[in-house]
Amino acid sequence: MLCAIYKTRKKQGMYLYVPKKGHFDDVPEELMNMFGSGELVTILALDKHDKLANVDKQKLVTALTDEGYYLQMPPKEEDLLVAHRKSLGLSEISDKK
Which residue range or ranges hold the YcgL domain (predicted)? Predict the structure, then answer.
């Protein structure tokens, strides 16, 4: 199975996977408006890869087959202040007002 991967300039780390290049027929209009005109990153032969970076291959294949697209969201950024407070044994939120 092949898929085309597009990135958006609107949100770093967001990618849209579709079954073939330029095939956005199954992507909801609202999503396309949010995503904007994507830039083709690559065309990937899924059968040749056991693992994919930041994507569960089975979820990707299922979404492409059932829905006709897959949207990869950027990884959640760690809140460094919360992590620092936890490392000090403090609560995540300051008690000061």
Answer: 1-85
